[in-house]
TrEMBL record:
Keywords assigned by UniProt, alphabetized: Cell membrane, Chaperone, Lipoprotein, Membrane, Palmitate, Protein transport, Signal, Transmembrane, Transmembrane helix, Transport
Region annotation Disordered: where it falls in the sequence: 261-309
TM regions (residue ranges): 50-74, 133-156, 176-194, 206-223, 229-250
Membrane topology: Multi-pass membrane protein
Recorded GO MF terms: membrane insertase activity
Record-level GO BP terms: protein insertion into membrane; protein transport
Name of this protein: Membrane protein insertase YidC
Gene: yidC
Species, as recorded: Streptococcus downei MFe28
Function statement: Required for the insertion and/or proper folding and/or complex formation of integral membrane proteins into the membrane. Involved in integration of membrane proteins that insert both dependently and independently of the Sec translocase complex, as well as at least some lipoproteins.
Annotated GO CC locations: plasma membrane
Highest taxon, organism lineage: Bacteria
Feature: compositional bias, Basic residues: 294-309
UniProt cross-references to PANTHER family, sorted A to Z: CYTOCHROME C OXIDASE ASSEMBLY PROTEIN COX18, MITOCHONDRIAL, OXA1
Amino acid sequence: MKKTSKRLLLSGFALSLLIFLSGCVRQVNGKPTGTVWNLLGKPMSNLITYFAQNLGLGYGWGLVIVIVLVRLLILPLGLHQSRSAAYQAAKREHLAPIFEPINKKLKEATTQEEKMAAQTELMQANRDNGISMLGGMGCLPLLIQFPFFSAMYWAARYTPGILKSNFLWFNLGNRDIPIVAIIAILYLIQAWLGAQQMPEEQRKQAGMTMYMTPIIMVIFGFSQPSAVVIYWFVGGIFSIIQQLIANYIFKPRLRKQVEEEFKKNPPKAPKVSKSAPKDVTPKGPSKPTPAITSKKKNRNAGKQNRKKN
């Protein structure tokens, strides 16, 4: 049930992202318009046209060059996110002896009270040791990158002349199955590399959820012209490069940094209350004894009357 919820959540996020990319730019008389288009999309479109016509490179290579330039521009933000995620992963790996017993309690909990106690303990351990529940993925870098993604999407989709041009073996205005298959492979590689950064326990919990992005990319790839798929193709290559930097440059350095940090400030185990959780299971009503009580009262009253007499 939890895995299904995670998959639905990820699918919803991807769908929301596509809606965002489509919604922040609107069309008037078949032409894109809006703040994001005017500030970012239109200059990108003009640059594609410049490379394609003025330099004679064609729309395919013009599109690739502009996508590379945009991705290089926002690469520092992506690397910042990757570094933050790698830092959190290094912390979790170092704190595995603290988190493993808590996760075991959470799995083996049989009552709601036991689950709540384990969740409280887990949250306390995260808080005490500076672990982010979001894995270090800050919202601000993502929000800054979204307008660039949106503008590039629309520039690839609506630059005049781009959908009538050929590039390599395919037409940029038509759907091409081989290029869709290539982006699926690229995002599978990126997902696998991302999984290597997770602790073993977290990797098991993620399951197939981390491979949802390639599936979603294939679905979208079949509904979009190849010009847009080229945008995702270049993006996939950058994602792999970014993940390789995180796995093999950031993470080894951050492991040493985390070890030094916890040497100075040893990890804190959560304080667990020794008192057992209250049993709130409803119990059956106790058997009433009104007859016995009344008999006892009558006997006592009789004895008192005899003494008075």
